[in-house]
Amino acid sequence: MSEAAIPLGVPQRTNPVSVLAQGAAALRNAVFPVIAVFFGSGSRSYSVLLALGIGALVILVGTLASYIRWQRFTYSVGEQDIRVESGVFSRAARSVPYERIQDVSLEQALIPRLFGLVEVRFETGAGGKDEMKLAYLKESEGEALRELVRAQKDEVDQVVTGPEADSDAGDAAAPATAPAEVLFAMGPKRLVTFGLFEFSLAVFAVLGGALQYLDSFLGIEVWDPDLWMEWLAGPGDWIAQLGPVAQALGAVAGLIGLLFVGSVTGLARTVLRDWGFVLERTAKGFRRRRGLLTRTDVVMPVHRVQGYDIATGFLRRRFGWHGLRFVSLAQDAGGASHDVAPFAQLDELAPIVAAAGFDMPPAELEWQRGSTANRNVGIAIDGLLPGLIGLVVLWLALGSSIEELDGKWGFALIPFGVALFLVLRQAFLWRFARNAIDRTQIYRRSGWLAPATAVANRVKLQSVEIAQGPIAKICGYATLHLGLAGGSFAIPGIPLERAKALRSSVLSSIATTDFSQLTED
């Protein structure tokens, strides 16, 4: 389908097959009523028929409601904006100017994907309910609409700011027929390896929530301690007779089982989210596709990349695995950062970073630590509360008689131990919180078990602010807040003179840059 097939200013409906897709989605709404009717009916002779009848009624009502909403929903693509009208009894019209649209993405959930449909999302940068979407269009229609909206947006931007003023022109001027370059992809083997590092125990939270319904359906109070003591009384006596060696082996087996469940859960979640992960450099920018049940297709123009983050974990860093995210003006799954290479080696990240117009952190960077005064204040704050609790417990123990003193000293050691741990942790992590700056970029590094590095372009920063609280003013340190469109970038607890020097360097880069001459590669 070509862009010319979408007439400007003419109201259009979404694809009529979307009624069936939304009706099929009503099956989810029918599951709970069917279960409730089946277990709640007094007679087993007709409970199945009654439950199926209720389920069919829910699906029928849901499909009918979807059809009515589809009939009353229209959208039109104009020269200055895109307009949506909806509502059954009361009509609502919403118009979004093209200059407010950050990006247009396509998403395919499982059921719409079976019908060959996509959901078109218009990212406005506001996030949440303010985002506009069309559910659903054919895949070819969604692709054509995305290209048409971007073309209209480019025309509006050039009229408002001039053909040389907006860096969007760099992406728009790229030849539309240029072949896509695959920058990063994850095959099944890489995906399985990634999933094994994504350990998760979320399945136990789901099981805990499901167990709460057993009381309603089976009359079992899962959280009754007496019930568990009764169930474990027999096995407990049997385990006690096995001896310490068998008990230790049983504990090891339980731990292995826990690790197995966590690994399988993390693997399943990773496969569902990142199956078929492909990042391409196209004429329109970075195109990322991923997902098994829900397939997403996001295109992010190069000029919208404001910065990037490189992070790793405690185990994966030992094997050289890192994750790369771009900080963008558009939203990605509710956040400002887009996963562009979630599981890669450092040499695989360098071409992606270069394609976005950034540089990897050079080895000769002069990293600076934060203020020692900030470290000392953090140590005092972290250890203050548990230390006071320990002193109170110790004072109460000293006020007891000799007969009552037995055992109370140990309680005082617990908060003191917590205070010591927090103090040592704060002093240790301070050594790994560093910052640096070079001719074009500013850097922030933090973390020891899971180190992360944030990088921002000095020219793309919107503002620079030095913030000091009462304690910081007395001790001579500050937090440097850098205005990064689409995200946040702060360097906390650095000496005041260092903060002023960084602010001066960033402001000089912004002041000496002629933004009307900026173009995309």
Give a brief description.
The protein is α+β, with helices and mostly antiparallel strands. Helix content is 46%, strand content 24%.
Poorly predicted sequence stretches spanning 5 or more consecutive residues: 163-170, 172-176
Shape: globular
What is the CATH architecture annotation of the largest domain? Roll
Count of individual helical segments: 16
Mean pLDDT: 80
* Strand residues, percent: 15-25%
The biggest beta sheet is recorded as: 7 strands, antiparallel
Q: Give the termini distance in whole angstroms.
A: 29 Å
Structural class: alpha+beta
The CATH top-level class label of the largest domain:
Mainly Beta
Q: Give me the count of strands.
A: 20
Tally of structural domains:
4
CATH topology (level 3) name of the largest domain: PH-domain like
Report strand order across the widest sheet. Answer: 6-5-4-10-9-8-7
CATH superfamily of the largest domain: Pleckstrin-homology domain (PH domain)/Phosphotyrosine-binding domain (PTB)
* C-alpha Rg (nearest Å): 29 Å
Helix content: 40-55%
Q: Can you walk through the features of this model?
A:
The structure is a single chain. With 521 residues, the chain is α+β, with helices and mostly antiparallel strands. The protein has four domains: 3-161, PH-domain like, CATH 2.30.29.30; 202-272, no CATH class; 305-370 and 433-521, Roll (PH-domain like), CATH 2.30.29; 373-429. Helices cover 46% and strands 24% of the residues. The protein contains 16 helices and 20 strands. It has helices at 17-40, 47-71, 110-114, 139-161, 168-172, 188-197, 202-211, 214-218, 225-240, 244-274, 346-355, 372-398, 402-405, 408-430, 470-475, 496-511; strands spanning 74-77, 81-86, 92-97, 103-108, 117-123, 132-138, 181-185, 278-282, 285-290, 295-300, 305-311, 322-332, 335-344, 368-369, 434-437, 441-446, 452-457, 463-467, 477-483, 489-495. The strands form four sheets. A seven-stranded antiparallel sheet has the order 6-5-4-10-9-8-7, sandwiched between helices. A seven-stranded antiparallel sheet has the order 13-12-11-17-16-15-14. The chain has a three-stranded antiparallel sheet with strand order 1-2-3. Helix 6 crosses helix 10. The longest helix is centred in the middle third of the chain and has 31 residues, at 244-274. The radius of gyration is 29 Å and the shape is globular. The relative contact order is 0.08. Residues 163-170 and 172-176 have low confidence and may be disordered. The chain crosses the membrane at residues 46-68, 191-214, 248-272, 377-397, 409-430. Keywords: Membrane, Transmembrane, Transmembrane helix. It holds the Pfam family bPH_2. InterPro entries: UCP026631 (IPR014529), YdbS-like_PH (IPR005182). Residues 70-148, 279-322, 430-504 form the YdbS-like PH domain.
